[in-house]
Design a protein that fits this description.
The chain has 321 residues and is mostly beta strands. The chain folds into two domains: 166 residues, Distorted Sandwich (Glucose Permease (Domain IIA)); 115 residues, Immunoglobulin-like, CATH 2.60.40. The protein is built from three helices and 20 strands. Strands 12, 14, 15, 16, 17, 19 and 20 form a seven-stranded antiparallel β-sheet that branches. Strands 2-9-7-4-5 form a five-stranded mixed β-sheet, with no helix packed on it. It has a four-stranded mixed β-sheet with strand order 6-3-1-8, with no helix packed on it. The radius of gyration is 23 Å and the shape is elongated. Bound molecules: zinc ion (ZN).
């Protein structure tokens, strides 16, 4: 169990981000490993942009008699600012050569949170959109299950019709549902939250414990609970190998200590939610393998924010990650 981690000094406060050119040189990695808990890979490529929303057809929107030939949402689960955004590949049937479509992202309560407009869509032609997880107001969408819904710009949603000639037992290849979450649990593998000394606020020599310890075997992969920009990556006597991430779309910073090896991520690099950042270790002042995890409120880590008790958050993320 960890004892006496002191926080890092404020000496990196105000450090200006290294621009994305470095990130671009590092290349695109991590998608598979983030999903499977594989090896740590340096990343830093910015997430791909979401598809543009588009605008309704300028003239009177038209569409033929529509059916859905195929539609596949993927992946089934993803994270805000994650390695993969929810995407939809679809193909419509229509008796008209061009069709003005609207594709909504609909939450579990049936409320449309974001809409995409696609004009002059041809039938029997694969198309796709990618949702960046933000609402029409530009905020991260709440955790939960969503569906894509394809409609003509005027009228009812497209029915899930079978292809002409398909047997009645052959369901159309349609899956429109997916889930998106704002945070990933940072340890991939078996873990627990230790005893009372592992908790936020537990006594340490000369101070109190500023985070929550997550007990796990050395070598298990760690992932970014929330993607964003790396604020600090280095070694400090008590913290050991130490990483701080400024969370995208939130005032929170997250801090990770005692990593087995220095994180391959460097300050200024972009990291995505759920992306590998290092391995559980016991470097620095750590009695046993664990992740020491901190959450700092806005404006952030040693920038005027304060650490808060991360346990309720960790428990919530643990339920779905
Ligand atoms: Zn600790």
């Amino acid at each position: 169990m960890a004892r006496r981690e002191t926080g890092a000094g404020p000496w990196l406060v105000g450090r200006i981000s290294i621009v994305a050119t470095i990130a671009l040189l590092v290349g695109l990695t991590g998608a598979a490993s983030a999903a499977t808990g594989g090896a740590v890979t340096p990343s830093g490529s910015p997430p791909p942009p979401g598809s543009p929303s588009g605008a309704p057809a300028a003239d009177a929107p038209t569409a033929g008699t529509l059916s859905l030939v195929s539609a596949q949402a993927a992946p089934r689960k993803s994270f805000y600012y994650g390695v993969r955004y929810p995407s939809l590949r679809y193909e419509i049937g229509s008796d008209q050569p061009t069709n003005d479509l609207r594709i909504d992202v609909v939450d579990a309560a049936g409320t449309t949170v974001q809409s995409f407009y696609r004009n002059d869509v041809a039938p029997n032609t694969p198309s796709s959109i990618r949702w960046d997880g933000t609402t029409a107001e530009g905020r991260p969408a709440p955790n939960g299950r969503y569906t894509f819904r394809i409609s003509p710009q005027v009228g009812e949603p497209v029915p899930l019709a079978r292809k002409r000639g398909a047997s009645s037992s052959e369901a159309p290849p349609v899956n429109l549902g997916f889930a998106i979450y704002g945070y990933a649990f940072p340890v991939l593998g078996t873990h627990d939250f230790g005893q009372s000394g592992a908790m936020f606020g537990a006594g340490r020599s000369g101070h109190t414990h500023q985070g929550q310890d997550v007990m796990a075997e050395c070598g298990l992969p760690l992932v970014a609970a929330r993607g964003g920009k790396v604020r600090y990556s280095g070694y400090q006597g008590s913290a050991g190998n130490y990483l701080v991430i400024d969370g995208k779309g939130t005032g929170f910073d997250t801090a990770y200590m005692h990593l087995q090896e220095p994180s391959p991520l460097q300050p200024g690099m972009t990291v995505r939610t759920g992306e590998p950042i290092g391995l559980v270790g016991d470097t620095g002042n750590a009695a046993g393998c664990h992740l020491h995890f901190e959450i700092w409120t806005a404006p952030g880590w040693y920038e005027g924010g304060t650490p808060l008790d991360p346990l309720p958050y960790l428990e919530r993320w643990d339920r779905y990650s």
